[in-house]
Amino acid sequence: MSIADRLAELGHTLPKPAAPVAAYLPAVEQGGLLFLSGQLPFRDGQLVTGRCGEDADEAKARDAAERCGLMILAQVEAALGSLDRVARIVRLGVFVSSAGDFTAQPQVANGASELMQAVFGDAGRHARSAVGVPVLPLNALVEVDAIVAIRD
Amino acid sequence: MSIADRLAELGHTLPKPAAPVAAYLPAVEQGGLLFLSGQLPFRDGQLVTGRCGEDADEAKARDAAERCGLMILAQVEAALGSLDRVARIVRLGVFVSSAGDFTAQPQVANGASELMQAVFGDAGRHARSAVGVPVLPLNALVEVDAIVAIRD
Amino acid sequence: MSIADRLAELGHTLPKPAAPVAAYLPAVEQGGLLFLSGQLPFRDGQLVTGRCGEDADEAKARDAAERCGLMILAQVEAALGSLDRVARIVRLGVFVSSAGDFTAQPQVANGASELMQAVFGDAGRHARSAVGVPVLPLNALVEVDAIVAIRD
Known about the structure:
homotrimer, alpha+beta, two-stranded antiparallel sheet
């Protein structure tokens, strides 16, 4: 089954790849690794904003992390032509906009991590860092970057 | 001398490798590099928590960074079978839970950096970023991730 | 034209490469990639300090990000002998000291990103993450790390 078919089976539709907010590229390939820029969460074309523990809860942020993951997949597809060229999701970096007493960043980040495993199986299992930050670009709730290994 | 012997000589005992807090892997190898997930500080099986400049000082945080470093080594050993397969500590990413007026993140991060140099010598000298964050998973005091080059 | 000539044409003078604040290296080469440690912004030998949205505005921070970028180039030159050995700026990681209501991290980070494009052209176009943090080492306003691909 192609990855595109697997995404459809899971009920996911990839968003339109977001243009970079500024002077950089969404993805750069070097030596068999694709480096993805930090992606923000969009739902129905709208940025998901807020801060965990203030105006957003864990469930909303977890969903936002999944939306970041879908945007990463959209950027990978745009860069490589097909998600079938993904050999491995190597690493995710997850930044969660957090009030000082919100400590469930791992559960939030699972929104992106579990997506990768559902889509790619064992090849979707990755290393990860998840940390709290006080604020993200455009007041986004979550930002996720990635390193992806690609096949020739 | 093996790295295990060198650790013993330094008086360090590796912790039991912590299971990932969530849906990811502690380490992923790709193209000769081992990407380590962010590791939290444990002492006697207990997570070291707090925030620098509030309920933790520089000395405690520096010790916590060393504990993160030991957990990284435990994860590397679990992933590779032996620490003797480490060719180089390439990079550490250090996140320090910090009040807004705490600016000694480099001194805190040295707890992990100096460990790597003591254990691996020149091969333990690495690139590094150290930043403050408002909060970390489970209220951890420090989180450290790593990229390690491995020999065949 | 050499990169050194291009820098001069742009009116930039590289700073003296800063010694690491602590126990790490400014740059480590591994497998054709140069990993740069997080660099702080210096102007006339003085660290640029502050927090966006409190005692620094977007323009000051954007300039500070450019200074971080120049320090990255100074470290690359020191590590490689010549900036002409840069094959590609692969990735920048930009940390912006930010009050909770400051959300223009992308515009700030452009200070570094646009420098790389001006100096290296297409080879300067990179992947990037930009996030807010509550505080940086020595109260720096911005910190930028990098991954650079090098030619033999």
